[in-house]
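Retry 2 of 3 after timeout on previous attempt. Resubmitting structure tokens to design endpoint.
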């Protein structure tokens, strides 16, 4: 019985040693390139497309404000008689110390990212002047 266990142990050691020292083959170049392509395609899906932002500076009268979670939105009537919905929040401001509430009929000057939604002009405020 002792001989049987010794033979079995020796056989296991030889197999283990042979598998560790066997020649490894280089990965298939085609498989690597497919993997890289797949990785790039996956990464591009994770990141939103980079759309150039249009910035705008507006000046006008505050017509209404609505409180939000980390700021507020306001309706501004500009000197050019254009109506803007503006979003003012601490995380969106370039300098969070500029954050303050607006009063109705107050004249404000704002700078930020301009966009439209459902035909309405929107401004994400980056600076309050």
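Retry 2 succeeded. Sequence:
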């Amino acid at each position: 019985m002792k001989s049987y266990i010794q033979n079995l142990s020796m056989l296991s050691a030889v197999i283990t040693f042979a598998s560790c020292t066997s020649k490894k083959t280089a990965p298939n170049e085609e498989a690597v390139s497919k993997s890289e392509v797949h990785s790039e395609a996956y990464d591009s899906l994770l990141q939103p497309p980079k759309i150039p932002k249009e910035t705008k500076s507006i000046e006008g009268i505050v017509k209404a404000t609505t409180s939000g979670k980390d700021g507020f939105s306001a309706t501004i009537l500009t000197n050019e008689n254009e109506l803007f919905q503006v979003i003012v929040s601490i995380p969106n401001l370039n300098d969070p110390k500029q954050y303050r509430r607006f009063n109705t009929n107050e004249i404000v000057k704002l700078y930020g990212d301009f966009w439209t939604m459902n035909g309405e002009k929107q401004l994400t405020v980056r600076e309050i002047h």
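Attempt log closed. Helices lie at 2-21, 29-46.
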